[in-house]
Amino acid sequence: MIKMLPESEGAVIGIAVSGKIDAAEENKWIAVFDDLIEKHGSISVLVVLEGQFNIDLDAAYTDLKWTIKHIKNMTKIAIVSNSKILGWLVAADSPFGKLAGIREKHFDTSDLAKAWCWVKAPVE
Description:
The protein is of the alpha/beta class. It has helices at about 25-40, 55-70, 85-100, 110-120, and strands at about 1-5, 10-20, 45-55, 75-80, 105. It has a five-stranded mixed β-sheet, sandwiched between helices.
């Protein structure tokens, strides 16, 4: 399941991801993101990964295609989780994201408020 977080505003959207994500769920959210990009040109995204989640292959492929197509429309991505491994992966990917014009950062779930401040702040 994917749900929008209430702190979302303007060109900044926050989502919480948990449970099973199928193609229908993915397509629903792609439409939301497309609408935001149409309205604002570029967006920043905060993703909270809550517990276990499972994304089916069709949804993962759809997500990857959408991300590649819209990479120029992404400004910041904040990943919020308790996973140290995910934190390392985001840190390793961050220099490549910068090359594409995206700032990305991992936050522990205890730092959710800091993640919101970071993702909402203007790009330096």
